[in-house]
Amino acid sequence: MNLLIILVIAILLFVAIMMFASERIRNVAMSVFLVFAAAAIILPLIFMFTAAFMPAADITTIPYRWIPRKIEWHNFYRALAGNDNRFTFLRNVLNSLIVSTSVTVTTLLLSSLTGYSLAKFRFRGRNVVFMFIMMTMMIPFETIMVPLYMVVLKLNLQNSYRGLIIPFMMNAFGVFMMRQYLQTFPDDVLAAARIDGCSEPAIFSQIVMVNSGPALATLAILTFRQQWDNLMWPLMVAQTQELKTLPTYITSFTEEKFADEGAMMAVALLASIPMIVLFISLSKYFLGGNAMYSAGKE
């Protein structure tokens, strides 16, 4: 309760400074706020990293010891072996890679096609179609989860890669992002390509897609991360250990009578490596993708 009161007072003080203080004081206050915000984001990552090398008893000790007294390498062995010592970790990593990559590729293709059609083609009902697509973003996944699961059962897609991939092949956010980006794409370039005899599929694949790198990279990172972290749907669809994904593998360490916090943090650390590599690989395009929201004003 005391922490909550301090947080509320700090927020009110920050708002008052931003409204009434001089520009220099506002800049200092904003810098302090950004430092605390960055610390709040980084702190859980530091906790995960240090806890992965600690014995389970030290992880739950209060106050928390940020520097391990000794390196517990056995956490990583248990993380790879699993609760049942079947060493299915690599298979679960492969499942996550297959599902996340497949969903990312289909989302990029279908969202780009839909966004390009809504941005550059004039047809009756275009805005109505876009409005209905956007309305689906307002529906929580939990409300359609059970009906979607029933459809998967009826189509015999349970416990298969198809059941994990097909329901997420495209999403409204991807359509929105690509439409907004492609609205700023020069119409003169498309008209020139048509005059030169370029077909519509060739225009889309050789001109539009090639010049949409920042938007595609941003959407790829967000989509891949969403599926890489997806827990609820694989829990419902994947019935065998061989088909489970990494999030379900991590939760298996809490199914015992005594949870293995050290192994859980170790497997979480290992599971975060692909996302870190993906972000570093596409960071130039991802950060450049922020320009899509201001491109129309420049």
Would you mind describing this structure in some detail?
This protein is an all-alpha fold and 298 residues long. The protein is 69% helix and 0% strand. It is built from 15 helices and no strands. It has helices spanning 2-20, 23-51, 56-59, 74-81, 89-120, 126-135, 141-154, 161-165, 172-182, 187-195, 200-208, 213-228, 232-237, 246-251, 261-288. Helix 4 packs across helix 15 and helix 5 packs antiparallel against helix 12. It is globular and about 70 Å long. The two termini are 47 Å apart.
Q: Which radius of gyration do the C-alpha atoms yield? A: 24 Å
Low-confidence stretches: 292-298
Q: What is the string of SSEs from the N terminus onward? A: HHHHHHHHHHHHHHH
Count of β-strands: 0
- Report strand %: under 5%
How far is the first residue's CA from the last residue's CA? 47 Å
- Helical content stands at 55-70%
Taken from the alpha-carbon principal axes, the silhouette is globular
Number of helices: 15
Mean pLDDT: 83
**What structural class do helix, strand and pairing data support?**
mainly alpha
Largest sheet: none
How would you describe this structure in keywords?
298 residues, mainly alpha, 15 helices, 69% helix, globular, disordered C terminus
Please outline the helices and strands:
Elements: H1 2-20, H2 23-51, H3 56-59, H4 74-81, H5 89-120, H6 126-135, H7 141-154, H8 161-165, H9 172-182, H10 187-195, H11 200-208, H12 213-228, H13 232-237, H14 246-251, H15 261-288
Helix pairs in contact: 4-15, 5-9, 5-12, 9-12, 12-15
